[in-house]
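Sanity check. The docking grid for zinc ion depends on where the pocket ends up, so I'm generating a full predicted complex first rather than guessing from homology. Inputs follow.
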Amino acid sequence: MATLSNSEAALRRDIAACTRMLVHENILGYSGHISARLPGRDALLIQPGLRSRDEVNPEDLVVVDFDGNVLAGKENGKPPSEVFIHTEIMKARPDVGAIAHFHPETATLFTLTDDVAFAPVKNHAARWIAGTPVHPDPSHIDSKESGRALADTLGAYEAALIRAHGAVVVAEDVRALFVDCVHFEENAEALYRAAAIGRVNPLTAEEAKSFLSSFDRNWHTGKLWSYHVGVAAKAGVIDDSYKSEA
Ligand SMILES: [Zn+2]
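Predicted complex below; grid placement will be based on this.
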């Protein structure tokens, strides 16, 4: 591998840790993927499609341009067939630095019924108070056209569900993305359980506004990232060197 800039090397380490830790949290399974925008380039980093999610290493990642062409890391394997989720959203959303596509068990349930819609019920789900659109097509998103259709469904929102398939969550960077994915599925589980015991009262716009007015996203991201890195290192999911970077 050619010499990497510090920022690319750091991004690679964050993606590898994020991927392994999301597996450890039962949020990523045998499929799903994390991408990060390479600063100043129309290109992103993503894992090869066949690399096991619980074994992703920084050097495994491939560099893909926004047309889906592999620019580096070809020898590591092809990008995932659903890479177009990432390329088309990165093109449409210059504010997005990192994307997760995954197939969460609980959040996906809310694409299967008309009776209970996905809604923010836990305070940290205030991030999605503007809404979480549901993409109507459950197919694999394995073409530019279907990637663009999903990017259109996502629009300016921070997450979308894909009917009978999964979810896409976007954030400014990989660490914030990790924390958002944890809260996204945690909120879905809370909603599922609340709906089982009674009528659900989701967060109101006023409650979300009040919560967010005193919420420091960077501080919260740092705290949760560092916690999960510690837990994952103890469990042998990532090596101890990540702790010094957390
Ligand atoms: Zn998928």
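Relevant for the grid: Residues 6-237 form a domain with the L-fuculose-1-phosphate Aldolase fold (CATH 3.40.225.10).
Also worth noting: The longest helix spans residues 174-197.
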